Amino acid sequence: MIDHTDIRTLESLRRAKTEFHNKLCRASADSAPLLLQKLRSENVFVLSEFFFLLSAFGLIAHPNKLESYILNHNTQLADLIASDERRKLMGLEVPRLRRGVFSMIQIHKAKANLLSATPGLDQADIQRLTIMLFSPETGRRVIEYLEAAGFLTRVATPYYSKIVQSHGMIEEYFAEYLAQVRTDVAQSAAPQQEVQT
Amino acid sequence: MKHAFKALIAAPFLLAGAAQAMPCDGSDLRLREAVQEVLVNAENPRISGWAKYLNESFYTDVSCRLSHGMNAEDVLRLREEPEVLIDLVIGTHMDRNQSDALMLMLSAMKGGSDEKI
Predict the structure, then answer these.
(1) Which of A32, A35, A125, B37 is deepest in the core (most CB within 10 A)?
(2) Residue B31 · residue B71 · CB < 8 Å
(3) How many H helices and E strands in chain B?
(4) Cα(B17)–Cα(A19) distance, rounded to whole angstroms?
(5) Interface residue A99 vs chain B (CB under 8 A)
(6) The A162-166 sheet, strands edge to edge
(7) pLDDT digits (tens, 9 = 90+) for B50-73
(8) Residue in A65, A70, A132 nearest the CB of B104
(9) Do B105 and A72 touch (CB under 8 A)?
């Protein structure tokens, strides 16, 4: 017996995610096969979600909100470092989590970066904020893929940091992905006839 | 120390298990040498002692997996933290689901967005 609602929900999720990656590939400034392959990776999807949320919550526009977010992030990491059980459940290790903790100086720098002539998050800060998602090295690579595709720009500063600025396309595509899922699922939520197989 | 030793025991098994799961982009000799240098010269005698017994194919496998996220310079920066390199060796090839971490991230951001401007 097939539950058509379940199948249609699954189809809409898959379709929307495929369309998200298709949009990235079509809009990429570089169509090299290896780059397009990277743009289809799960890590690109996850980092796009990160940028979408930063924008949706207005965290880049308001230094106080960013500070509050970073403090919450630090608290989460401290809790995970202190909790063997939760950490093991998530498959994370203490040395990696420690690399994601912000010092107070780093928090002040992150806030100051939002007020500079080229406002944005430092690449190192993004790597810290995404430490639970992937290692800093993987994070840097994903940022590089998105930069190569023309979705992000990294601005080198005199202080040897790189400010990452999004052009807004990945956030827009991610919002469209969510809208498509929402629309499709709402349409499929109407009672469907069950079919005996 | 405890983490490093546990990771040491686990790494070869995890690497062997994932050997066919992730094809390598290409052999990077510098990356392979960097991995070998960091592990063989580790201050922790458990790591350096263990590293000396490993053969070329082990280092090739490890560098293949790391090449998806690192280059030789990245690896050499971990000279003082070979435990982190071992953690990365384990972490980079595992396709762990990120939903749990994404939920935590969303929660932290949501809390931040409540902050008064």
Answers:
(1) A125
(2) yes
(3) 7, 0
(4) 33
(5) yes
(6) A121-122, A162-166, A152-156
(7) 888 888 878 887 888 777 667 888
(8) A132
(9) no
